[in-house]
Design brief:
The structure holds 4 protein chains of 4 kinds. By secondary structure, chain B is mostly helical. Chain B has 14 helices and no strands. Chain B is 78% helix and 0% strand. Classes of the chains: A mainly alpha, B mainly alpha, C alpha/beta, D alpha+beta. Chain A: It is a multi-pass membrane protein.
């Protein structure tokens, strides 16, 4: 696994935001959207249509080179690589979405609760968070793989739980900032409950940094799934997953070197897309980057 | 002061104990029978039962936990159910390899990331800055094992300059050690370097917008000098957080590179031991990993207090 | 005639989207002290940063900026030669002392650096020694220890002195100061200004002082430039501009700054048309009606506090003791904080920003002002009064209900009776919420249609149209936001309104409008008002009674006029002295 | 970095520079031994490294599968096949210096019953009595004649130990073989050095390092880059072709005993009907499986018998030609429609690849195979092997002559044919010719009754530097016999 910081660049705190070329991250944001959009399009299209069946076995068309019949050639099972790449987009997006969903679903409420209750509870919860930070996603994936059996769901859950502490940290530091804002005091003075304040005031106001974190985590999850596939802990066949395609293509590096290129490019496009998206969003959400009127 | 230190150590110890319980519980529900794996396909049920008893797996979980953790506290990780050797040395050997690999790769990553990140931040609005940051963006997006595989293909298989994998102890043969270290360290370091350079870039950019940099400029320092004299130490703080986290996640994360290069590191050991359901070993490895990460966080915190005087007076 | 130290001609600054400075021209003569005054966004800071050559990269400047003895136009001069000027011939002090110093570097080293950079001292040792001397010159009590300190160990005022020491190190020809005292407490502000004036006078350095505060200009400067929307609209001697402003904007600015001047109806002068306060529509629910009926049935007798000087160590004194049932009764209130980290190096350790044994009453209908500096405990008091914080000991009864130990459930009714308006118009409104939801927040168990009706009525009561309901806070100016805050505070028909520095962050002209509005509404709703501020002018205008709080204690209190005109406690005297009125200023400068 | 590249660039690999013969060898292997004790630890990895190299028995199998003398110089068998008289080699010592005598034989073989828990202690069940006739003579009496017994004696259970060398078998291997273990790093390498006191002819290779890989690509990369000189038993055959066209290397294709088996739970609901099992036989195009999942390497055998066994029957490969229509017909006859089976495979490359083809082909005859990939060995052993909780699996049976055990009713296949069991029992006790005949009959019945679908025989392919001689081609036993290798 490429050991990307599990908390992502947003982790270093809301005040630490990188700036990318382009005003308000416009160009970066658009580049990210286009790349991610491309993958989403591939995933959606592949629900109804792929040039060939990406899950069957076709002994007659093994390892065909790229050409007019097969745009990107075929693999050792005779499957059209282009079709597999299209269908693989589904798994990549699924893994990213579910992993990030679990991470945010666990981490954000945890972080908000901790941030809203400074003192003992916060200390206690953060210590717990430290412990879960000490179990990185890959370690969890290995252990969960052994407990529940390797597969897409296990990988997604492990990645999700492994990334949750990062979300908790971000949510907590954001919450602590928002808690010192006067509108939270005003809401308390207005007799609003903690739940109301958490949902209506804090969550919307930290959503910017959470979205940034989510988009970065998404890229990390896609890379991690590829790494897990390499270790045999990823999506099992025949469902096409880019990570496994990469792993399978490894054996054909000298026979059909292009095979390793396609899933590699697909992964890079998606990860790059989400990183750019994250950078662009970061710049957009950075209040100091906004033009004052 | 002493009290503060004691409190922190106490807290750390408590964290380790909780982590050990989590580790134990998590692993106690591993499916698969270690006794049967040890005996293989020809064993009878009676053999398996006897073996289970011999391995001490028939005792209640609490007893097993206390027995295990009690011994761990005195430095005894127990005996592997597979290799029948003390687990401690197996872990230290593997940990040594992983730590050397990770640290080397991090040093390489820093050597690349710091100048690269600073340059792409300073030249942010110039085309070359955009190209630099584009390179790191793409570097981040490439799976690390792909980088490793390509390095092997080029430098080991095609050019035959360097070995394709394996490990040589520095004590046995220093030259061989270095040869075997280079490719995996580069493979691991290149992706980390790309990641780090983005953090360096963003935190340098962040610092350049600080008021005290403006103060430095107003004193008559040029952009570069202001950044160098006042910016870098400040920019180092967030980069160090990331570095600490990176090292922590690399201890397990290096397993992929260890597999590509057939290095018997800690992650590899973990995978092997999990496959063999060598529970005492797996527990030991996971605990060592977790404690190592906790320790690392502790050290990063400590490093902050060295860098940042504001934190020093807090204790 | 000697050429001016600074000569600016047709300076234009623009972003890719708009021009922000529209060709301003002015001179600063050698040794002259010039004030540059204007409201936020008028372009005064841009002027200074253009002169320094430190504009943000996204902005471009045209025109000429010349410095006596330098051939080149500073706007086009190469970076290298600018570097030689900055910190040497040309120095600048910024507004925010907390962030302007490198947190990781010792203060002495930061001061010494400006000399090693320009080689005005032969070596590091000498530079350090001179840094210590300079720190002594800016009146830091233990300069040698201060040099060894890190910035976070110094208070804001001390840091600003360090900045001054740094700026003056190389005896510059011109010193630019951008709101150098805005972030400081009033008493500290006065001292720093005095120091600044002395320093530039001693070295006959020309000074360009940027501020929004006329009082500051009057204190330090000889000449004043008034900026308005990217133009200089008035330029003249301070005395003349203060007493006989010519441009309409200047006139309004000065009128609004003077909180002692009121019109025939007792209202402050404002820049725009007066706000028409529409009568409140009768309340809808019956509970509300009963309260109002009660209020009208028993008109509150104005309670007059005795002017008391509450000495430390004396017998516990209850300030403003009210017989019967006061709106607020506070007895022996203390609040301690466990604060991590140590205090400043020199300042008395501000470890406990709490309250110590505070006892006072507020009668119904009374308007109590609480005056104090940052860290005095006034914000803590305010929060406790609103049950947003809990006392460590002592009792707080509000409207007869003990709130110190009450649960949130028990406070439900209290919450609608006591409302609060905060200082920061940016921070007190949730940027993600619509105005409608913000204002409606204190309403509970009210149906949608009625919420709408009441929000609409309340908005019009604070002078806002109903069509703002669907907008978000960022679409409003500071003054409008503060109106929204007030609308939110009043929608539940509270009986007590607590305001925390409610106008401190506003430009002077807007401040007057909001103060008028507040005064009107307090009358209208027969509110008991607790108004916390560091600004004696505001207190004098709005409050009938004042309590001066220092270091967690009430040190003096009584009827506002009595206390401010005849302060008893030395601290109060210091406060009053630091805040001259417009008339005094005008008198002082013309002498 | 560049400087260090230049520095180390030339000294990699095994290329010898001097005139001295290079007698060191590095071998790349896949399965790593967990320890050194095959008496209590299952798996082929330990015998592969130690048997014949460190440990020796009375007899060994040569590369063609013939039983040859080893520690026994010669032996005679009584007419009734019950009494074996072994004449032992003299002057043999264990690596700890203790002598090898008839007493060692008695000690070693008697130890098996009570102290061995892995690698088939039951193989020695036929032994009734062991007599030390003299230091160099031992007589073993069987309780019943057994054709398989002596064959089994060539495997791990026949290993000779010394009483002074069994204290710590897991870490300390004391044998009579040409090599001793000089170092062992779990998961990484096992280094063998020549036993200076070896009783026989010293092997050519004086230092042999067995390096363990987890990844077949890493293994071949190591060979290509010169890190290792020999790969014994490549597991992923797509990696082979690149070596065929490379003159620096030799590719040795031999026979193994690994039958890749699509096993069906005969005792389970889905496959209790022989027609359903036969339908699966017709439904699978085994050549297509071989081509896609195994890059075309391997031999279609159609039974559990490899060609190295005398009772191999080549015609069984054609017993069930690929005929999906026939399969559908059989399913109809059995009254089965919409059959959905739990297809639980181990997470091994050949199984994962093969299962995809099988699943695809079963789909075409209307059988839905729900593939679950189970961790091997841990979960697969528990779920499929021990608990029989599966309908179909795909696994390679690598032990030699394992058809007999496959027919045991309690075995995971659940195949219960009294006729076959009886024939195997008779065969073991019969004379040589009848033995072969009966074995052939029994294994044919197994295929006819579709006890399992034996997809193909995994080839034993070794890849080696071109200059390496005497590389064992076949793997008739578990051992990797290093003694014949030279350069």
């Amino acid at each position: 696994m490429t050991a990307v910081d599990p908390r992502g660049p947003a982790a270093t705190g809301p005040r630490r935001r990188p700036v990318t070329a382009g005003r308000n991250g416009g160009a970066t944001l658009w580049a990210g959207l286009v790349l991610v959009g491309l993958v989403v399009l591939a995933a959606v299209v592949s629900v109804w249509w792929t040039p060939f069946d990406p899950e069957g076995v076709f002994p007659d068309s093994i390892l065909q080179p790229p050409g007019t019949a097969y745009l990107l050639g075929t693999d050792s099972f005779g499957r059209d690589v282009f079709s597999s790449i299209l269908r693989g987009a589904q798994i990549a997006l699924l893994v990213g979405t579910v992993a990030v969903g679990i991470a945010a679903g666990l981490g954000v409420p945890f972080g908000i609760v901790a941030g809203m209750n400074p003192g003992r509870l916060d200390q206690f919860m953060m210590r717990g968070n430290d412990i879960s930070l000490a179990f990185p996603a890959l370690l969890l994936a290995i252990i969960f793989g052994a407990i529940f059996g390797a597969g897409t769901i296990t990988a997604m859950v492990a990645l999700g739980i492994g990334t949750a502490p990062a979300f908790a940290l971000i949510a907590r530091s954001g919450t602590m900032q928002i808690m010192s804002r006067e509108y939270v005091l005003a809401a308390r003075a207005a007799g609003k409950s903690g739940l109301f304040i958490g949902v209506r005031h804090i969550l919307p106001n930290i959503s910017g940094m959470l979205i940034v974190q989510a988009s970065v985590s998404f890229g990390i999850a896609v890379l991690a799934e590829a790494a897990l596939s390499y270790l045999g802990l990823g999506t099992p066949p025949p469902t096409p997953s880019w990570g496994r395609m990469l792993q399978e293509a490894q054996g054909y590096l000298f026979v059909e070197p292009l095979l390793i290129l396609w899933p590699g490019i697909a992964i890079a496009i998606l990860v790059l897309g989400f990183n750019l998206l994250g950078d662009g969003l970061r710049d957009r959400f950075d209040p100091r980057m906004q033009v004052k009127r | 002061m002493v009290l503060v230190v004691l409190r922190r150590i106490g807290l750390f110890a408590a964290t380790v104990v909780v982590a050990s319980i989590v580790t134990f519980l998590m692993l106690s529900i591993l499916p698969g029978n270690a006794a049967r794996i040890a005996l293989g396909v020809q064993a009878t049920e009676a053999d398996v039962a006897a073996q289970t008893k011999a391995m001490g797996l028939d005792r209640p979980a609490v007893v097993r936990y206390l027995d295990w953790f009690g011994h761990v506290l005195v430095g005894d990780f127990g005996t592997s159910t597979v290799s029948r050797r003390a687990i401690g040395p197996e872990i230290t050997d593997a940990l040594g390899i992983t730590v050397i690999l990770v640290l080397t790769s991090v040093v390489l990553a820093l050597l690349f990331a710091v100048p690269f990140g600073i340059l792409s931040a300073v030249r942010q609005r110039k085309p070359d800055g955009a190209i630099l940051s584009g390179i790191s963006q793409i570097g981040v997006a490439v799976p690390g094992f792909l980088a490793g595989m390509l390095l092997v293909t080029v430098f080991a298989v095609t050019l035959r300059w360097l070995p394709a994998g394996g490990w040589v102890d520095p004590g046995d043969d220093l030259g061989g050690f270095l040869q075997h270290l280079i490719l995996p360290a580069i493979a691991l370091g290149s992706v980390q370097g790309a990641v780090l350079s983005r953090y360096v870039r963003s935190s340098v950019l962040e610092v350049t917008r600080e008021d005290f940099i403006r103060t430095a400029r107003a004193k008559g320092l040029g952009v570069g000098r202001a950044l160098f004299r006042h910016g870098l130490r400040n920019a180092a703080v967030p980069v160090m957080t990331v570095l600490g986290l990176q090292i922590a996640s690399l201890l397990v994360g290096a397993v992929v590179i260890e597999r590509v290069f057939s290095l018997p590191g800690l992650g590899s050991l973990l995978l092997d031991k999990v496959a063999l359901r060598d529970l005492p070993a797996v527990q030991g490895i996971v605990l060592v990993l977790v404690v190592f990460v906790l320790l690392l966080n502790f050290l990063v915190d400590l490093a902050f207090t060295v860098i940042d005087p504001r934190l020093r007076s807090a204790s | 005639m000697t050429p001016p130290t600074l000569s600016v001609r047709d300076l234009r600054v623009g972003s890719p989207f708009a021009e922000l400075l529209h060709g301003i021209s002015f001179d600063v003569a050698a040794g002259e002290r010039v004030g540059l005054i204007g409201e936020s966004g008028s372009g005064k800071s841009l002027t200074a940063t253009s002169v320094m050559g430190l504009l943000p990269e996204t902005l471009t400047a045209t025109g000429t900026v010349r410095l006596n003895g330098v051939d080149a136009n500073l706007l086009t001069a190469p970076e290298r030669s600018l570097n030689q000027l900055r910190g040497n011939t040309l120095a600048m002090v910024f507004q925010e002392p907390m962030t302007a110093l490198n947190p990781l570097m010792r203060v002495g080293a930061q001061v010494a650096e400006i000399m090693t950079v320009h080689h005005t001292e032969p070596g590091r040792r000498q530079a350090w020694e001179r840094a210590v001397t300079l720190l002594a010159q800016v009146k830091l009590s233990n300069p040698r220890a201060a040099a060894q300190a890190f910035p976070h160990q110094l208070s804001g005022g001390q840091r600003q002195r360090v900045m001054l020491a740094m700026a003056m190190a190389n005896n510059p020809q011109l010193l630019l100061c951008d709101e150098p005292t805005t972030a400081l407490d009033v008493t500290v502000q006065a001292e720093v200004l005095k120091l600044l004036a002395n320093l530039v006078a001693d070295r006959s350095t020309a000074l360009l002082l940027i501020t929004h505060d006329i009082a500051v200009v009057a204190e330090v400067c000889q000449r004043v430039l008034v900026m308005y929307q990217g133009n200089i609209v008035e330029d003249g001697p301070v005395a003349r501009v203060l007493t006989a402003p010519q441009h309409a904007h200047t006139q309004k600015l000065i009128a609004a700054s003077d909180l002692s001047a009121v019109d025939a109806r007792g209202r402050l002068h404002t820049r725009s048309r007066p706000v028409i306060v529409t009568p409140i529509t009768p309340a809808v629910d019956s509970a509300q009606r009963t309260i109002e009926a009660d209020a009208t049935a028993a008109p509150i007798l104005p309670h007059r506090a005795a002017h008391q000087h509450l000495e430390r160590g004396g017998p516990p004194v209850i300030f403003n003791a009210v017989a019967g049932a006061p709106a607020i009764r506070v007895r022996a209130l203390s609040r301690q904080y466990r604060r991590r980290g140590g205090g400043g190096l020199f300042a008395p350790a501000p470890v406990v920003h709490g309250l110590r044994d505070v006892s006072f009453d507020v009668a119904e209908g009374q308007r109590l002002g609480i005056v104090g500096e940052s860290g005095s405990g006034k914000s803590t008091l305010m929060r406790i009064l609103c049950a947003l914080d809990r006392p460590s000991s002592g009792t707080v009864d509000v409207l007869g209900q003990p709130i110190g130990t009450a649960s949130e459930r028990q406070l439900r009714d209290f919450r609608s009776q006591v409302q609060i308006v905060f200082q920061d118009p940016m921070g007190s409104l949730d940027p993600r919420m619509k105005v409608r939801d913000i204002v409606a927040e204190p309403l509970h168990n009210v149906n949608r249609a009625e919420v709408r009706a009441r929000v609409e009525a309340q908005l019009s009561a604070v002078g806002l149209d109903a069509d703002v309901m669907g907008r978000h806070p960022h679409q409003f100016s500071g003054g409008q936001r503060q109106r929204i805050s007030i609308a939110r505070a009043l929608i539940s028909r509270p009986r007590i309104l607590v305001a925390d520095e409610a106008v401190s962050a506003l430009d002077v002209s807007v401040r007057a409008q909001v103060l008028n509005l507040l005064a009107d509404l307090v009358d209208e709703y027969q509110l008991t008002l607790v108004f916390v501020s560091h600004d004696l002018g505001v207190i004098r205008h709005l409050c009938d009674t004042v309590a001066v709080i220092s270091d967690g204690r009430i040190v003096e209190g009584g009827p506002t006029a009595d206390v401010l005109d005849h302060p008893l406690h030395p601290y109060t005297r210091q406060l009053v002295g630091a805040m001259p009125s417009m008339h005094q200023l005008a008198r002082r400068v013309s002498n | 970095m560049l400087a260090s590249l230049g520095l180390v660039g030339c000294s990699v690999g095994t290329a010898s520079t001097g005139t001295e013969p290079d007698t060191s060898l590095t071998v790349g292997l896949l399965a790593t031994p967990g320890n050194l004790d095959y008496t209590t630890t299952a798996g082929a990895a330990i015998p592969q490294a130690l048997l014949y190299n460190v440990y020796e028995g009375l007899v060994k199998l040569d590369n063609d599968g013939t039983i040859m003398p080893l520690l026994a110089k010669s032996w005679t068998v009584s007419g009734d096949g019950l009494v074996y008289d072994f004449q032992l080699n003299e002057g043999v010592t264990f690596s700890d210096g203790s002598p090898f005598t008839a007493a060692s034989v008695k000690f070693s073989l008697e130890r098996v019953k009570d102290n061995w828990s892995a690698n088939g202690p039951a193989y020695l069940d036929p032994i009734a009595q062991i007599e030390v006739v003299s230091d160099s003579q031992v007589r073993i009496t069987l309780s019943k004649p057994s054709n398989s017994w002596l064959f089994n004696m060539s495997g791990p259970v026949g290993t000779m130990f010394t009483e002074s060398g069994i204290a710590d078998l897991a870490t300390d291997a004391v044998g009579t073989g040409p090599y001793t273990v000089s170092s062992f790093k779990t998961g990484d390498s096992l280094v063998l050095a020549t036993n200076a006191d070896y009783w026989g002819e010293a092997p050519y290779m004086s230092d042999v390092t067995l390096r363990y890989f987890t990844d077949a690509t890493a293994q071949t990369n190591a060979l290509l880059s010169g890190d290792i000189s020999l790969i014994s038993g490549i597991s992923q055959f797509q990696l082979v072709d690149q070596f065929k066209s490379n003159a620096d290397f030799q590719v040795l294709e031999g026979a193994s005993t690994g039958e890749v088996t699509l096993s069906m739970n005969n005792a389970g609901a889905a496959f209790s009907d022989v027609r359903v099992r036969q339908a699966v036989m017709y439904a699978i195009d085994r050549q297509a499986v071989l081509d896609t999942a195994n890059s075309g390497y391997g031999l279609l055998i159609g039974s559990m018998v490899p060609p190295t066994d005398l009772w191999y029957d080549a015609s069984l490969a054609d017993l069930y030609p690929y005929d999906p229509d026939k399969a559908i017909e059989l399913l109809d006859q059995a009254g089965v429609s919409d059959l959905s089976v739990a297809f639980k495979i181990p997470n091994l490359p050949y199984a994962v690849a093969g299962a995809q083809v099988v699943k695809d082909q079963l789909d075409k005859v209307g059988i839905t195979a729900n593939v679950t990939v189970l961790e091997f060995p841990a979960v697969w052993l528990d779920e499929v092997f021990a608990n029989h909780d599966y309908d179909m699996s795909l696994i390679m049976h690598s032990e030699p002559r394992d058809a007999t055990s496959f027919a045991v009713p309690s075995y995971y296949a659940g195949y219960d044919s009294p006729e076959v069991i009886a024939k195997f029992a008779q065969a073991d006790a019969a004379d040589a010719a009848t033995h072969v005949e009966l074995m052939r009959e029994a294994t044919r019945t197994m295929t006819e009754e579709a006890a399992a679908n034996w997809l193909y025989l995994q080839p034993a392919i070794s890849l080696a530097d071109a200059d390496l001689l005497g590389v064992p081609k076949n793997t008739p036993s578990l051992a990797l016999d290093l003694s014949t290798i030279a350069r």
